[in-house]
Amino acid sequence: MTIKAVCSKFNVSPDTLRYYERVGVIPEVHRTSGGIRDYTEDDIKWVETATCFRSAGMPIELLIEYVRLFREGDHTIKARCELLKEARDLILAERRKIDDALEKMDGKIKVYERAVETGRLEWDDNSCCCCNKSKE
Amino acid sequence: MTIKAVCSKFNVSPDTLRYYERVGVIPEVHRTSGGIRDYTEDDIKWVETATCFRSAGMPIELLIEYVRLFREGDHTIKARCELLKEARDLILAERRKIDDALEKMDGKIKVYERAVETGRLEWDDNSCCCCNKSKE
DNA sequence: ATACATCCTGGAGTTAACTCCAAGTCAATA
DNA sequence: TATTGACTTGGAGTTAACTCCAGGATGTAT
């Protein structure tokens, strides 16, 4: 599969894929005799994992470390397992932050939706943490 | 409240708070006669909102726009409401990506945990999307 | 009144993660 | 076989969001 096809499959740019390969976010991709990238099934699955984890905010550094361990062989299985658990904790923490923000946001949105009808903001101190009182 | 106290309350650096004020992520903070920042209740709530939304990955640009609208007065209530909804959609999309990644990660972790016991990786094609087969 | 810690500003520097570019190679078409 | 368009590399440039710094002002404890 050409780089272009992989790009549109995962919605990333060719530069990004080449960059991932260069810095080791994914292992080296299979090439044609002419030196042009020709992604195998496995290559594509690496890209899938990398783009998925990246879009969740997992730092590139961790992915590089994972690939490094993978290349070292089966004696790094435990280390890879630890790394994945560490990564999961990191992403769970992200989700907690997102949920906090969503709660705060929903409170504000409710106040604003009422305000759009009544014409005046009425902050409700315990449902919404709001700095943004309408000055009166 | 001094900048230092606000910093330790929200676990950010003084530089970050000054930066937020400078670029308009929060409105101007109250000062002592000498020109030193002395955060009021309201100032602190703005900081709370900003740090909360930022840590969920909401871009600074949106926060700046929100503050800009806020300063314009009550005729921007509808616009602010729209902006908040847009921000919520953005963050909900983030959460979906996170949930996708978590699912993929949990699949991998399960495989690795089994492998730590048995000594060999056994990928289960439909429970886990995995590029990282142990070569054999 | 003198240290000494803390604060101020404007501007430069840093980091992660791309993104762009020039100069050249490869492959499909006319 | 010549053209055209996609691909290659190494390296430089960009962007968001801080982070650091120099040189100076402020505030508090002795």
CATH architecture of the domain at 3-92 in chain A: Orthogonal Bundle
- How far is the N terminus from the C terminus of chain A? 63 Å
Helix content of chain A: 55-70%
Which word captures the global form of chain A?
A: elongated
The major pleated sheet of chain A works out as:
none
- Structural class category of chain A: mainly alpha
- Which pair of chains has the greatest number of interface residues, and how are they split between the two chains? A-B, 52 and 52 residues
Q: What is the third-level CATH name, the topology of the domain at 3-92 in chain A?
A: Multidrug-efflux Transporter Regulator, Chain: A, Domain 2
Instruction: Provide the low-confidence segments of chain A as ranges.
Output: 126-136
Q: Mean pLDDT score of chain A, rounded?
A: 91
Quaternary structure state of the chains depicted: homodimer
Strand portion of chain A: under 5%
What is the H/E string of chain A?
HHHHH
Quickly count the helices of chain A. 5
Radius of gyration of chain A: 23 Å
CATH class of the domain at 3-92 in chain A: Mainly Alpha
- Total number of beta strands of chain A: 0
Keywords (chains A, B): DNA-binding
Organism (chains A, B): Ruminococcus flavefaciens 007c
Pfam families (chains A, B): MerR_1
Protein name (chains A, B): HTH merR-type domain-containing protein
